[in-house]
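Appendix C reproduces, verbatim, an entry submitted by the partner laboratory led by Prof. M.T., so that reviewers can inspect both the input and the predicted structure.
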Amino acid sequence: MHSAAPLFDALKHFVERDQAPFYSPGHKGGRTLDPWFRDNIAAIDLNNLPDTDNLHSPAGPILAAERLIADAWGVPQSFIVVQGSTGGNIAVAFSALHPDEPVLVARNAHKSVLAGLVQVGARPVWLEPRWDAEFGVAHGLDAAVVESTFANSAAKALWILHPTYYGTCGDIGVLAGMCRRNDAKLLVDGAHSPHFAFHPDLPASGETSGAAATVQSVHKILSGLSQAAVLHVDTAVIDPASVRRALQLIQTTSPHFAIMTSIDLARRQMMLDGRALLDQTLDRARRTADRLEDIDGLRVLRQHDLAGAGTGLHQLDETKLLIGTSGLAADAREIVGRLNSIHGVQPELAGTGHVLCITTIGNTDRDMDRLVAGFTEVAAHVGRNDENQPAGLTADVLAVRPETALTPREAFFAADKTVALAQASGRIAAEAITPYPPGIPLVMPGERFSADVIALLSALRTAGNPISAADPSLETVKTVR
């Protein structure tokens, strides 16, 4: 039995397949990594030694690397993060928020933002993102939604997703101005934005648009290893010592030097060759989008779909290919399964009515040809779907908002109880429950189950909608005892 190594075997099989990679990390299997670095990753798996410096109190090469990162991204100070944007977002919560302090938060925030709220005890005021029924995704926040909420709250921070997973952005300049007028900090989960600073055709970057703190995953788009991230701060708004203290609290004392080094090298690559590499990436993505749109039944989110200034769909990262598949007579997950198994094409994800492909400096023309050829064959295989797509239960999910009874922290640390969904009315949720679509939590920890919420969850379960919850079948839910 113990001669087996199932995880190793699975990874070896995956790597040895001939695939076109449209998923993170951005180096696409090491294509864009420095050759010496790629060949010596095991050798630089080192400890905190006099020659290597210490992440928790850097004074040598790590500190020098952080200063170069800040200069490259054009910010006062940057920090290396080795636990992904998740660790960075939690550090932002510790550095910028206080217990019981109200903070405006996009409802489609990453779960690491919720984790930060739980740990700090801030009181979220949830804001609805702009919904796109055609592609089945949530975008950024409309400025009008934020403005009306500021007017009716004492919030001293706004925490936004910029860009979304799908590469779409709200009007960060307008949102930053709104924060200044309300004496509030702008906090940016920019996990998918590390490349924005290096090309003028990409959306405005959070770190240069007025954000007090911006977190970015260097591994998602650039040549960083998984978990490589950076945290940029405006030192006039957030005390850098408080950030270092927060990172010391949450980050491992045994950071992987290969992860840290990959950030250093990705920064160097962008500063020396980034403009040219991103020129090629954007050109490749745009030409591929044109070709995909020529396939009957497909749509691609493009610049002409943008909704204008002040909206949650103000700018678009064109390196992301959000491909609408509702015109095909197959579920997006079936489409991705066939792309992968028949054509060796692996997208980042499939959702209801869409497929997301992440293109980076690591992709090639051959990858793009395989993507187009794969979609061409799949579209011919499954055929057209000419029926109008009903809104289904998604509109109800977006319209219903439960009453808030506790902060996420209070609900998390309260004694919990597992109860049948049908018996949860009046109880307070101890977990987040997220139907897909829309990928926005219907229930957050600390919100109260009502008869309407339970009826909607029951209808979603009956309809077969995927649901992220402690019990995905929704026979039971976690509530505060």
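The two ends are 43 Å apart (CA to CA). Additional entries are available on request from the coordinating office.
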